Amino acid sequence: MSGRLVVIGLGPGSPDQVTPEARKAVAEAKFFFGYKPYLDRLDLTTEQVRVASDNREELSRAQAALEKAAAGEAVAVVSGGDPGVFAMAAAVCEAIEAGPAAWRDIDVSVVPGVTAMLAVAARIGAPLGHDFCAISLSDNLKPWDVIEQRLTAAASAGFVIALYNPISKARPWQLGRAFDCLCSVLPAETIVVFGRAAGRPDERIGIFTLGEVDPEQADMATCVIIGSVETRAIERPGRPVLIYTPRSLAPVSR
Amino acid sequence: MSGRLVVIGLGPGSPDQVTPEARKAVAEAKFFFGYKPYLDRLDLTTEQVRVASDNREELSRAQAALEKAAAGEAVAVVSGGDPGVFAMAAAVCEAIEAGPAAWRDIDVSVVPGVTAMLAVAARIGAPLGHDFCAISLSDNLKPWDVIEQRLTAAASAGFVIALYNPISKARPWQLGRAFDCLCSVLPAETIVVFGRAAGRPDERIGIFTLGEVDPEQADMATCVIIGSVETRAIERPGRPVLIYTPRSLAPVSR
Predict the structure, then answer these.
(1) Using the 8-state DSSP alphabet, how is residue B54 labeled?
(2) Of residues B96, B132, B253, nearest to A134 (C-beta)
(3) CB burial readout A65-92, b (16+ within 10 A) else e
(4) Nearest chain A residue to B235, by CA
(5) Is the Cβ–Cβ distance between A244 and B89 less than 8 Å?
(6) Model-level pTM?
(7) Strands (E), A12-121
(8) Could you read off the pLDDT of B103-129 as tens digits, one per residue?
């Protein structure tokens, strides 16, 4: 007897950014697997059960959740942001592909959410206003030289770049190296945004240039947006600066 | 006297994917500027006013909205999906930068939403599970050769690619040309997904390979996702196939 498993995106953190679809999916599940800070966001009943695990344990968490679903239970795996962006949806698929045949008969669904780069972008204007890419800076699952090649390719081709997982205690030098790498293809004046906890009470947004940005000011929960050469700042007396990337490659008409 | 202007992302289309934040922002505005199909989604009171405009009129729409806000009104500009992804937030910023100084004193904010590629990805698994990019295929605002360079750079570097604005009556050949261009760097078996109206009653999802995909099956509202060489399909007897891109570059352990 197969149960069901839903992978739920809880958005960037503010309850106001959780979709009704995600809220319903939470109400309908019984067992909740996830990284503890995401589970802590849930408002559960006494019948609902949290199964917390550490981050960097995505695959074993996915396996445990699938096992529970295969036993006929209503299971949810929760992610911050969107579960399809450097989060649990891919880990669940990996576990299904490598797992017992019975896991392929589980009713699996994914509930999308607002991912960090969109929430950070919204707080400062429209830095992702043109072609952009998202790169995870974690070299736990891919070699560092592939990351450098992707950074260089994306910056050279004119993409705005959003970096996820920029830095952690176990990966202290990668963000600085990424900036060095980008400095070889982008001007020092290129705009860089650090966005942390967008939409939450502890939100922190910083605007820098590539030439002067300090990687130490980022942490695990920071989303870093690096502009293209087109990305611009609009100064506004008495109001926060707006950062945006024009839709057009031609200069803005004045 | 300056009013306020909020750029609101209404998500991919299902009311269940509109965030509470977006719903509140709609309730608090009086004048609504947007492309008619997005305005039609709103449930407004008799005091609230719709100002519809055609698509491809983004800049003049933004200007009209800013004028109204500068006159002291509570104005909303609505977008489908996320307003920062190939949508109205950048057009509003462009208009502010090029417009009268008074427009810089308007209280401008952006409410993020679930953008199309996330909604489409969620319906089929986790195709954006690793590094990915988003490219608008419209050559109204940038030269076609830049688009081809970006497609080639992204595919060669291993990014999954999401295409927005893939085709329209005025731009009938671009999607086919993009597939031709990608065929020169990606294998014919590369997975391609067409997702239209994800989460809505008229949803249509198609899964193809790059070698056999027919661009004519896409329309303006289709989001096209082109896998990387890592993107995989999991066949499931009696259930829909799952498409995903592993988090890791190494082969899945079995």
Answers:
(1) -
(2) B132
(3) bbbbbbeebbbbbbbbbbbbbbbbbbbb
(4) A104
(5) yes
(6) 0.96
(7) 31-35, 49-53, 74-79, 107-111
(8) 999 999 999 999 999 999 999 999 999
